[in-house]
Amino acid sequence: MYRDIKQAGNKPTEIVLETGMAYIPPNLKAWLITSYEDVEFVLRDPRFRKSINEAMPLFAENAPGEGNAQARSSLLYDNMANNDPPKHTALRKPVNGAFTSRAVATKRAGVRALAEETLDAVAHQESFDLVKDFAFPFSIAVICSTLGVPEGDRGTFDSWVQTITSDAAPDVLKRDAGLMVAYLSDLIARKRAGDDDDVLSLLARALDGPEAVAQAYALLAAGYETTANLIVTGFLTLEAHPEEREKLWADRSLVPGAVEEMLRHQSPFNLSLYRYVTETVQVNGVELPAGSIVFLAFAAANRDDGHFERPDDFTVNRSRREHLAFGGGIHNCIGKHLARLEAEEAFDVLIKRCPDLVSLTPAEEREWKASPTFRGLKSLVVGTGPSPRRPETGAVR
User: Fold this and answer.
1) Judging by DSSP bridges, how do beta strands 28-33 and 275-277 pair with one another?
2) End-to-end CA distance of the chain, in Å?
3) Strand partners for 359
């Protein structure tokens, strides 16, 4: 998608967002910010806000013929991602400590074990689906174990998230959103009555019912979709750059740097969630009227040749410049450290146990998800090459 965006140039551009997503109606007229400098400006300027209750009437005004946008809303979306301080601060504070770099570092062994177990399930097969059999089950297992979602419920919860974050019909969105609300409400109530120390228990004890449900949904949905997509698009990018892949396969110490380059080069978020302008403001010489809806093109900003040298090149040991894959400002991704750790362990396991893994799904048959926000494939069949069985006990990892 970033190539289509970049054709508009680096100045803010008016667009029509044709694909609706949950509370955002289709045919929404909005502004698209594409350059690195302009995206950073918007991320930190308080005139660009994210209060969902104030945004709903603006969605209706900017999506003529689509009816009342409020009808597409749900308490699921009244979370920290769709609010500004002071509410954003109050919603994020209870879980900040669980997602610091230090707290996440203690989870590495557990995340590694989940990556190994997920690969074990397909170790006997000559081929498997990297999306459905590895990336998503692994990422779901990590976020659900972190938050405290019972293992037996994870598949059902995933099916609801996939509907809610898609362009499904309004009645289908409403149905699955309702099921998600009911499930999370019950789970939060049980957590509040217990004495667990997982993230959902922290939310249950710190926030009221609806607030805890909305926060839980935000963490669950965003906590696995983007990371799973990154694993798959990162794998394809390495395959398209055999010299870089060879470097990584020869030296797994390069994995953390390679993951950073994947985040930049293959931004898991095409577009940010919405923002709206509280007063008329100029961005790079373009006037955005008060009440405008704004989206930030992270994928384009991360390939901005005004900020990155040879931005379309993929280099596993690129000299680092800060990318925007995790956003910025007060709305920077709370799960960024966990996402990095997951991707690092996923690739380390795949490189070690499946060194000859190649994609088998032809490029013309790859189907991308219909989402303006998430960038990911629906399926990617890969061949394992040598058996991905675990090495003998005592082998150097």
Assistant:
1) unpaired
2) 37
3) 382
> Which ranges of the chain does DSSP label H, i.e. alpha helix?
2-6, 36-44, 52-61, 87-96, 101-105, 108-120, 136-147, 154-164, 170-193, 199-206, 209-240, 242-250, 255-265, 298-301, 336-353
Instruction: Give how many domains the chain has, as a whole number.
Output: 1
Domain membership flag for residue 20: yes
**Tens of pLDDT along 150-206?**
888 887 877 887 777 766 777 887 888 888 889 999 999 999 988 888 999 999 999
In a domain, 150, yes or no: yes
For every residue of 235-259, DSSP letters joined together read HHHHHH-HHHHHHHHH-GGGHHHHH
Closest C-alpha to 169, from 21, 377, 16: 21
Distance CA(64)–CA(70), nearest Å, equals 14
Is residue 369 domain-resident? Answer: yes
Domain presence at residue 34 = yes
192: burial class by Cβ within 10 Å (0-12, 13-18, 19+)? middle
Contact 299, 5 (CB under 8 A): yes
CATH number for 218: 1.10.630.10
Question: Do residues 225 and 374 lie in contact, with contact meaning Cβ atoms separated by under 8 Å?
Answer: yes
Residue 63's domain comprises 2-383
Q: Given CA atoms 167, 171, 175, 178 in this order, what sign does their dihedral have?
A: positive
Least confident of 116-120, 195-199, 278-282: 195-199
Asked whether the predicted pLDDT for residue 392 surpasses 70, the reply is no
| Helix, strand counts (H, E) of the chain | 15, 10
More confident residue, 43 or 20: 43
Distances (CA, A) of 284 to 10, 38, 41, 287, 304: 9, 7, 10, 8, 15
233 versus 10: the higher-pLDDT residue is: 233
Cβ contact 98:236 at 8 Å: no
- pLDDT for 243 equals 96
